[in-house]
Amino acid sequence: xxxxxxxxxxxxxxxxxxxxxxxxxxxxxxxxxxxxxxxxxxxxxxxxxxxxxxxxxxxxxxxxxxxxxxxxxxxxxxxxxxxxxxxxxxxxxxxxxxxxxxxxxxxxxxxxxxxxxxxxxxxxxxxxxxxxxxxxxxxxxxxxxxxxxxxxxxxxxxxxxxxxxxxxxxxxxxxxxxxxxxxxxxxxxxxxxxxxxxxxxxxxxxxxxxxxxxxxxxxxxxxxxxxxxxxxxxxxxxxxxxxxxxxxxxxxxxxxxxxxxxxxxx
Length: 266
Fold this sequence. Notes:
Residues 63-259 form the ABC transmembrane type-1 domain. With 266 residues, the protein is an all-alpha fold. It is 79% helix and 0% strand.
């Protein structure tokens, strides 16, 4: 009886946790279809806010900036972070404590400190050279800076989990450096590379503080736009775009699950 009660308690706690996580999202999705401009009462179902969203050039521009920034910065972070992760593994027997500290620093620093330091750096560079005025370029550099450590640690952990003799075996089979990369390292690192890219993309798309301090007047991202909009109150248009983003994430997760199951079945 006691064990059964314990399991029932765990089940109840599980459902409470799910409700705590997902009920606010369901409320946002529900009110995105609200017929009236109210965040307190639901008066009926309507698609008017989605139509207004598609006609709102400011929101679409901010969404485009967010996607472009996330894509470019994630690709750059993936390339740089992979090289750093491989270098950490290749020279893991050396005393690289200082390097580990430098890699962890952008992760543990508060975003506001990191954002202010990036802004100060870009302003000083712009004063001295006329380059790096606030905009998507400075935002990309700032995002790559905090994305690289995550990718490097993911790639490094993947390398550490490999049998070191596999590298020697590839050499013994007379594989050239290019062949070792193409036929051994890239297929082996594929899960880590995909994870690093998706994590970087998510971090960039979600970031507000660092983007806020490094953005220019024409490079507002979606989080910056939403922050400026909710100071006047949350409108159903914000709910609508949040619903579309949640739907896109759910679709991507479902697609990944289906592809992984098909790959496992084959």
